[in-house]
Model the fold of this input.
Amino acid sequence: MKKKIAFITGITGQDGSLLAKLLLNKNYIVHGIKRRASSFNTKRIDSIYQDHQNKSKRLILHYGDLTDSLSLYDLLNKIKPDEIYNLGAQSHVAISFINPEYTTNVDGIGNLRLLDAISKLKFKKSVKFFQASTSEMYGNQKKTLNEDSIFEPVSPYASAKLLAYWNTKIYRQAYGIFASNGIMFNHESSQRGENFISKKTTKAVAEISLGLRDILYVGNLNSYRDWGYAGDYVEAMWKIMQYKKPDDFVIATNKTHSVRRFIEIAFKRVGIKIIWKGKGINEVGFEKKSKKILVKVDKIYFRPNEVEYLKGNYSKINKLIGWKPKMTFEKLVNKMVDYDLKKLKNK
Ligand code: NAP
Ligand code: F7E
Done:
């Protein structure tokens, strides 16, 4: 039987690397684009890298960029993928306030470049397209969110992603392209970028417990996120692409936890109980036993606009596709701390 061909933007990122592994296990041929960088940026996929000389290789990397329409069209036309996963993005919300134009170009117009390239392909009716949409598009509504909730973005990242969300729907309706949105709430893993709060915390906790660092500096302790496991979310992406028709789905856990709680659980894993003292910028977290201050707030990590509370409802994808998250929040935090500890001990 002919092997399915996938094309992944963002293959070097957290989700892209996990998705590539999932698809290779399902016997796909996987193509991905990597950006030119002055140092190697493929460490998340080094374990599945296959030599160019290997005639039966099923992972093929190409130089490419979501800001470069010409190469995107040429690649799609040459590769003729069955499934395209658009996971490439400047994905950091705080950094989108610092580089708003670049974020809009990659996250918003990058999606349009791909969709428009697809609409010009002879085989456009047989290609499936997945867009990595985000819960950030909802903004600050402080209620449980689903596919019918309104969108009120409060960051350049969120507005760029909303542009991509709408164009995905528009190209579906206008050109009959199989184009689906996964509206994903936060999802984490040991492969998460080190400047997101989850990985930043678990890495710092591992370092503190081994005496390699003194303090974890953070921003807003009081925001709530619906945190799931990235391994479960890439499974949802694939399932959305196998569904009989294109549609939009919330991918979430139906639970929410504060940043403060994340930090407490991470420290608990290494036997440290955190007690909080003070308010706002002066709040600190100290170890109950030793009274040592281990967590401090630094205003540099606050955003010009904050999304205070996110909680999703995954009923639709559960009912229509049968997906549900498998990993609990506590297990996820523990797994991330254990990974970071092991990595440091093996250094
Ligand atoms: P990530 O780890 O930051 O990975 C982003 C990927 O995009 C990396 O491979 C990165 O390449 C690539 N990229 C950045 N700029 C690019 C450009 N100009 N052209 C081509 N590729 C580019 O993000 P993630 O956590 O895996 O998230 C995957 C997708 O889901 C993103 O679109 C994100 O916005 C979205 N999303 C994520 C979450 C979440 O909680 N993780 C939730 C909702 C939506 P480099 O490795 O070279 O930097
Ligand atoms: O922040 C607070 C911060 O940067 C989570 C991306 O994958 O999920 C992610 O965006 C919360 C925020 O993720 C620090 O203010 C406190 O309230 O880990 P984060 P995010 O902004 O929610 C969405 C769904 C995406 O689509 C994005 O691509 O934690 N926070 N102190 C902090 N955040 C960071 N990064 N660093 C801190 O020191």
Notes: The first helix runs from residue 14 to 25. Residues 78 and 216 are 48 Å apart (CA to CA). The pocket of NAP (ligand 1) is lined by residues 9-10, 12-16, 33, 35, 37, 41, 65-67, 87-91, 106, 132, 134, 184, 186-187, 193 (CB under 6 Å). The first strand starts at residue 5 and ends at 9.
